[in-house]
Design a protein that fits this description.
Length: 301
């Protein structure tokens, strides 16, 4: 019998629009691979979701991005329902989304991370953090939502809710000047290393999603030892968090050290996104990629 797959997308996080694009692409890819596909635009109404999941699908393809879809919440509900789903489970998803906790685990595993502090807005406004340049990050957002580089003479006002519509606590992270690399991990295999370049100076939300915002060099033109180390660290980070399925690790390289920025447990999945691009580079089509993800879907044990 044809396997029934429900694609969850949309949601109500700051990354809703990106999720809709990822979900539509994955649904098309799954149909091309021969699955019976239903698309669910997730709303903040669990009774509507439960109705949409009737009749029960064989697998849920989680194409949600950001809070509630990427931080363990939807994973917990699917565990209760006993419906296998793609990507990581509750714990790994929650750990990866909590940037301070993820960095603590990475450091304990021997993965270099930039120096950082967690402060409130008042402390930040008083200039009692670290010398610029540094990076401001929301503690639990994805896709570089809210990320801001503070340089000398920057007039960014962190107490202004319009400028910072996130939680009171903020991560202040030392800015690592250098090159940006990313590595997709599929199961226990690191696919390759991509270098990301952008004229914006940082791979922020607009650089990721605006037309022409960034360019990808695949494979990255870097010393083989650095290349192999990026693959190793991506695999190690994936395992340290307890990820499964597909993840993507992001790095900054200062010419000497690879610094882990974060692991994305729900990376973008349009045909031109970084993970499908790396899969294609090693001979895996988009249809084969989403099929592998469905066939390896599971609930937490």
């Amino acid at each position: 019998m044809t396997k029934r797959v429900a694609v969850l997308m949309g949601g109500w996080s700051a990354e809703r629009e990106v999720s809709l694009v990822s979900g539509a692409a994955c649904a098309n890819g799954l149909r091309s691979a021969g699955y019976d596909v239903a698309v669910i635009d997730l709303q903040r109404d669990m009774s509507t979701l439960l109705t949409a999941l009737t009749p029960r699908p064989d697998v849920v393809f989680n194409a949600l991005h950001g809070r509630y879809g990427e931080d363990g919440c939807i994973q917990g509900l699917l565990n209760i329902l006993g419906i296998p789903y793609t990507h990581s489970g509750v714990l790994a998803s929650a750990l990866a989304m909590d940037k301070p906790m993820a960095k603590r685990l990475f450091a304990d595993a021997g993965i270099p991370v930039p120096e950082h502090r967690i402060v409130d807005r008042e402390t930040l406004a008083a200039g009692k953090t670290m010398a610029p340049p540094f990076v401001l990050k929301p503690i639990n957002e994805g896709s570089s939502v809210g990320v801001h580089i503070v340089r000398e003479a920057d007039n960014f006002r962190p107490l202004d809710d319009d400028a910072w519509p996130f939680a009171d606590k903020v991560m202040v992270e030392r800015f690592v000047a250098g090159r940006e690399f990313t590595v997709a991990v599929m199961g226990d295999t690191a696919l390759t290393v991509t270098e990301i370049t952008t004229e914006r100076g940082f791979y922020d939300y607009d650089a990721k999603y605006a037309p022409g915002g960034s360019a990808h060099v695949i494979p990255a033109d870097v010393d083989p030892a650095v290349f192999d180390e990026a693959l190793r660290l991506a695999r190690l980070a994936h395992a340290t968090l307890g990820c499964r399925g597909v993840s993507r690790a992001d790095f900054r390289f200062d010419g000497t050290t690879l610094y882990m920025l974060e692991v994305n447990t729900q990376p973008g999945m349009t045909p031109t996104s970084l993970v499908p691009e790396q899969a294609a580079h090693v001979g895996i089509t988009f249809e084969q990629l989403v099929q592998w993800m469905v066939e390896n879907a599971e609930c937490d044990s």
